[in-house]
Design goal:
Layout (H helix, E strand, L loop, with lengths): L6 H17 L9 H10 L6 H9 L2 H11 L13 H8 L1 H16 L9 H21 L5 H9 L3 H9 L1 H14 L3 H9 L3 H11 L4 H9 L10 H16 L15 H7 L3 H25 L1
Helix pairs in contact: 2-3, 2-6, 3-5, 4-6, 4-16, 5-6, 6-8, 7-8, 7-14, 7-16, 9-10, 9-12, 10-11, 12-13, 13-14, 14-15
Length: about 300
């Protein structure tokens, strides 16, 4: 049973807190200075590899983790990458930015405060990233690593709620179990908004690339993403497929309906789905090492 607490007061109290966060975004967590600098530098086409390397080298712990990830089986380079400048040259700005962002998210939200299944959450998120990447490659999209990181952190808002509103998010999870409803429905019932909206606020504060922000904000409703709909649709379909396959735990046991426009866009039939999941199973095992290296 849910704890005996006036649900109306809980709803009003948290809505007040979240409204304050929306109006005064300094209450939300900020990216570490080094990580923020790297993200901004790598989005500037005039930046050099030396500038990026210098920025990363200011944080030795970050440098070590990025190198471990670059040398993981996920990338599969035959020779060991020993310097951050070498990693930048081989992987490119976008991949380095993604690795830095992944490390930052893992570090900032490592502490859990409620009954949210973090292990299951990361397994689902990793599977979503892998699945989105494979769909993108099949569609001939070149920046599939960008889509991988989009799938990996699409549910950023759940981490924010768990870490910063642990008591209230615990009640959300309890409501999911008691009523057997999707987590988004429980969030909206108790909080007045969902994890996608919360994640969007944080992504905006962090000045994340526009496409990544739209994935985080609109992955449940891709048509709202405008010109980024294609990538958002890929992550949306990947999310639904991973839920249908029961990979990890997104916070509930429900399989959401797939957006019709998004499904038509990825153009997957039964034969392709079977092939896709066989590839996901193989790549997911490799990608787990990448996740471990980031921690």
């Amino acid at each position: 049973m849910l704890p005996k607490k006036d649900p109306l007061m809980v709803q009003i109290d948290l809505r007040t807190k979240l409204t304050k966060l929306g109006e005064n975004i300094r209450d939300l967590p900020t990216l570490p200075v080094v990580a923020n600098n790297i993200i901004q530098i790598t989005q500037n086409p005039k930046s050099s590899a030396l500038e990026v390397g210098k920025a990363i080298s200011q944080d030795q712990a970050l440098t070590s983790k990025v190198l471990r990830m670059a040398n993981s089986a996920y990338y599969g380079f035959p020779q060991k990458i020993t310097t951050i400048n070498h990693a930048i040259v081989i992987l490119g700005f976008a991949s380095i930015r993604n690795l830095v962002l992944a490390v930052s998210v893992f570090d900032m939200f490592s502490k859990r405060s409620g009954n949210f299944d973090r292990g299951g959450f990361w397994k689902h998120s990793l599977a979503c990233g892998v699945t989105a990447k494979l769909i993108a490659k099949r569609l001939g999209i070149n920046n599939f690593e960008e889509i991988f990181i989009s799938g990996l952190i699409h549910d950023l808002g759940k981490l924010v709620l768990d870490a910063y509103f642990g008591e209230e998010f615990t009640r959300v999870i309890d409501l999911v179990k008691v009523k057997g409803i999707p987590i988004r429905e429980a969030e909206q019932e108790l909080l007045g908004l969902d994890h996608a909206a919360v994640g969007g606020i944080l992504a905006n504060k962090w000045n994340l690339p526009p496409q990544l922000l739209k994935v985080i904000r609109f992955h449940h409703n891709p048509p709202q993403a405008g010109e980024s709909m294609r990538v958002v649709a890929i992550v949306h379909v990947a999310d639904v497929l991973c839920r249908a396959a029961g990979i990890g735990n997104g916070g509930d046991c429900k399989v959401p309906c797939v957006n019709e426009q998004s499904w038509k866009l990825v153009s997957l039939n039964k034969r392709l789905l079977v092939k896709l999941f066989s590839e996901v199973e193989i790549e997911l095992a490799v990608a787990c090492e990448l996740l471990t290296s980031a921690k």
